[in-house]
UniProtKB/TrEMBL annotation, chain A:
The gene is rnfB. [4Fe-4S] cluster 3 binds at C123, C143, C146, C149. It is found in: Cell inner membrane. Residues 168-190 are annotated as: Disordered. Part of a membrane-bound complex that couples electron transfer with translocation of ions across the membrane. This is Ion-translocating oxidoreductase complex subunit B. NCBIfam families: PRK05113.1, rnfB. Belongs to the 4Fe4S bacterial-type ferredoxin family. RnfB subfamily. Its main location: membrane. Binds 3 [4Fe-4S] clusters. It comes from Thiohalophilus thiocyanatoxydans. Residues 1-23 are annotated as: Hydrophobic.
From TrEMBL, chain B:
It is found in: Cell inner membrane. It comes from Thiohalophilus thiocyanatoxydans. Residues 442-521 are annotated as: Disordered. Part of a membrane-bound complex that couples electron transfer with translocation of ions across the membrane. The complex is composed of six subunits: RnfA, RnfB, RnfC, RnfD, RnfE and RnfG. One of its GO terms (cellular component) is plasma membrane. Keywords: 4Fe-4S, Cell inner membrane, Cell membrane, Electron transport, Iron, Iron-sulfur, Membrane, Metal-binding, Repeat, Translocase, Transport. Its cofactor is [4Fe-4S] cluster. Residues 362-391, 400-430 form the 4Fe-4S ferredoxin-type domain. [4Fe-4S] cluster 2 binds at C381, C410, C413, C416. This is Ion-translocating oxidoreductase complex subunit C. One of its GO terms (biological process) is electron transport chain. InterPro entries: 4Fe4S_Fe-S-bd (IPR017896), 4Fe4S_Fe_S_CS (IPR017900), Ion_transpt_RnfC/RsxC (IPR010208), Nuo51_FMN-bd (IPR011538), Nuo51_FMN-bd_sf (IPR037225), RnfC_N (IPR026902), Soluble_ligand-bd (IPR019554). It holds the Pfam family Complex1_51K.
Length: 190, 521
């Protein structure tokens, strides 16, 4: 009897220590769900979701504070992927945050730019190049089309242009959907 | 010894429509007044132009050089003046424009001097590949993959069999058959060069059994000692035998693994036209500036094969064969199953234009009906896929599932759509899904890049904030310190003044060295 109690007590202590050690040693840094959500978001960092960037929005979704339909640049595709990941029903994009449109980038009208650097400070991905009182320019391949630089510009010299489609980026259109049911003869039932 | 042949899954026996365009011998196409030469006529990156507007160029002169590894140069197809380097319509299913070099021909067709390779067997395979690359040679069978890459087995890979693909399985197209009939020696010379580049042990030239004349002429052209390592094989005429993976299966019984290359099973497959182009490059030093094109179809008066300069407008080629512009015909580049409709007849012939097909526009499009699950598509699929499943998932835009069903093993041969009793445009669904998936991959890459840049910026701002705070803190400390022991501060101030005065004196002393410069120091 006594032996059994001692053995069990020792076992309990050993396993307790093991668990305690594992909890410290194998601790998961951060929230993996946040990473997964962040991975799906388009990383425009545009703030249209009302959060200051994609990662804060991902954190808010993970905490349950934000809905999955607040990302206009991502559109339906992102909502669907988020719904799949989180096991919730997809819903239409919340119009309050904006509409899902075609991809755009910005260009600076270099004749009008006064070199104030305000847009450089606003760009979340460092895609604008320039120096005080020097002409600025947008690195088009890095621009996410967040449009955050447009508001601060004092001379309105930044313009939104659609990303041109090339034969390399062109997509085949979805074929017209076939009729769901063959046209019925008049008087046909069921 | 007769070679044992295998069968690939599915396939179709289609009406050939080949005799129409094989009545006439190959002729040269007329020299057009203006040539439009796209900078990208191959899979990979577009070439970079090296000529300027207004510059006079000669036939065969380099117009644009290869920019990346998967890229080849582009050459002038005739002599003339470069009048524009800008976006022009190209033959592409999108109907979009792409950068082109436009040359106004001067009619003289002056050629630059060529430097042939005298004895290619003395060249290293890598040097030989470079010569082939500089000549701008791409696969002429249809896909247009740079040929020099497919002639590089890579370190540690041995090539057992080199297959020359003369199985032109798609209806209407006869340019390879005519080439084999009329110029067998060029093909064999090209094969020998490829064999040297790849160090292949064994070679096969495969052609369909409905081309006895081509077989005969190749057989006559083969010398006895060459017959010991080159085998001429007739394969059954079943569409799509000419598909690389299907041909390998028929000839060897081996299957190229999914997502793999023929090289994975020690094989390399090239088109016969590519071999002829390589022979021209090595023996005559000529770059790839023209190709054989089949011009055929119901609305072409005299269907035939022409040798067409790259950059010649489709309409010029068609008009030479008795086609009229006033009927609003449907024009296709490629064959009836794998080709695509070209809306603008002014687009130029490019390196991958094997056939120009013209027929009356069918006003009555067959409306697609619901899938009845008959399974015909799966029966004919040469890649052994499940076209129905692919269709459902592509239609539902479920791009993960569609890849689980190996969408990217689909060769878009069109057999499934051909047999579909509901007339569902299946291939269009697969092409739609493929391009959507590629677009998503591009977006993902861009998003990752943006995330990295954003995170870096956040870090930089954070670091700057910390540094500012640190500086402020240090300043505050200094201030506190100086207030704490004022006497100390006054003393140091005095010392500083003294030092400054000493320095000033020293400077004065230097200016007037006679008045006791030594004393001061």
């Amino acid at each position: 009897m006594l032996e059994a109690i001692i053995v069990l007590a020792i076992l309990a202590v050993v396993f307790g220590l093991l668990l305690g050690f594992a909890a410290v040693r194998l601790k998961v840094e951060g929230d993996p769900v946040v990473d997964q959500i962040d991975n799906i978001l388009p990383q425009t960092q545009c703030g249209q979701c009302t959060y200051p960037g994609c990662r804060p929005y991902a954190e808010a979704i993970a905490k349950g504070e934000a809905d999955i339909n607040q990302c206009p640049p991502g559109g339906e595709v992102v909502i669907q992927q988020l719904a799949d990941l989180l096991g919730v029903d997809p819903k239409p994009l919340n119009e309050e945050h904006g509409e899902h449109g075609e991809k755009t980038v910005v260009v600076i009208d270099e004749n009008e730019c006064i070199g104030c650097t305000l847009c450089i400070q606003a760009c979340p991905v460092d895609a604008i190049l320039g120096a005080p009182k020097q002409m600025h320019t947008v690195i088009e391949s890095e621009c996410t089309g967040c449009d955050l630089c447009i508001e601060p510009c004092p001379v309105d010299c930044i313009h939104i242009v659609p990303v041109p489609e090339t034969p390399q980026t062109w997509k085949w259109p979805a074929p017209p959907q076939p009729l769901e049911k063959p046209p019925r003869e008049a008087g046909g039932s069921t | 010894m007769k070679r044992r042949l295998w069968h690939f899954h599915g396939g179709l026996r289609l009406p050939g429509h080949k005799t129409e365009s094989m009545q006439e011998p190959i002729q040269a196409a007329n020299l057009p007044r203006r040539l439009t030469i796209p900078l990208q006529q191959h899979i990979g990156e577009p070439a970079e132009p090296v000529v300027e507007i207004g510059q006079r160029v000669l036939k065969g002169q380099l117009l644009a050089r290869a920019s990346e590894y998967i890229s080849v140069p582009v050459h002038a197809s005739t002599s003339g003046t470069v009048v524009a380097i800008e976006d022009r319509p190209i033959p592409h299913p999108s109907g979009l424009q792409a950068p082109c070099v436009v040359i106004d021909s001067d009619g003289r067709d002056e050629e630059i001097e060529h430097t042939p390779v005298n004895n290619y067997t003395e060249l290293e395979p890598s040097a030989l590949r470079n010569v082939i690359r500089e000549a701008g040679i791409v696969g002429l069978g249809g896909a247009g993959f740079p040929a020099f890459i497919k002639l590089n087995p890579g370190p540690g890979n041995a090539v057992d069999t080199l297959i020359l693909n003369g199985a032109e399985c798609e209806p209407y197209i006869t340019c390879d058959a005519m080439l084999m009939q009329t110029q067998p020696r060029r093909i064999i010379e090209g094969l020998l060069i490829m064999r040297h580049a790849l160090q292949a042990r064994h070679c096969i030239i495969a052609l369909e059994n409905n081309q006895p004349d081509a077989w005969q002429s190749l057989n006559n052209a083969l010398e006895d000692d060459e017959k010991t390592f080159i085998e001429l094989v007739k394969v059954p005429t079943i569409y799509p035998t000419g598909g690389e993976k299907q041909l390998i299966k028929v000839l060897t019984g081996k299957e190229v693994p999914s997502h793999g290359l023929p090289l994975d099973i020690q094989m390399v497959c090239h088109n016969v036209g590519t071999a002829a182009a390589i022979a021209d490059t090595i023996h005559e030093g000529k770059p790839l500036i023209s190709r054989y094109v089949t011009v055929t179809g119901d609305t072409v008066g005299q269907p035939c094969n022409l040798e067409v300069r790259i950059g010649t407008p489709f309409e010029a080629v068609l008009e030479q064969c008795g086609w009229r512009d006033d009927r609003n015909d449907e024009i296709l580049m490629g064959g009836p199953l794998m080709g695509f409709t070209v809306d603008n007849p002014a687009v130029p012939v490019i390196k991958t234009t094997n056939c120009i097909l013209s027929w009356p526009t069918t006003s009555e499009q067959q409306t697609p009906m619901p899938c009845i699950r008959c399974g015909e598509c799966a029966r004919v699929c040469p890649a052994q896929l499940l076209p129905q499943q692919l269709y459902w998932y592509a239609r539902a835009k479920n791009f993960d599932r569609v890849q689980d069903f190996n969408l990217f093993d689909c060769i878009e041969c069109g057999c499934c759509a051909y047999v579909c009793p509901s007339h569902i445009p299946l291939v269009q669904y697969y092409r739609f899904a493929k391009t959507e998936i590629w677009a998503q991959e591009r977006d993902k890459k861009k998003a990752d890049q943006a995330r990295e840049r954003h995170e870096f910026r956040q870090q930089r701002i954070e670091r700057k904030k910390q540094e500012d705070e640190e500086r402020k803190r240090r300043k505050k400390e200094m201030l506190k310190k100086s207030q704490g022991d004022e006497t100390d501060g006054e003393e140091s101030k005095k010392a500083a003044i003294d030092a400054a005065m000493a320095r000033a004196r020293a400077r004065r002393g230097e200016k007037t060295p006679q008045s006791g410069g030594k004393k001061e120091t």
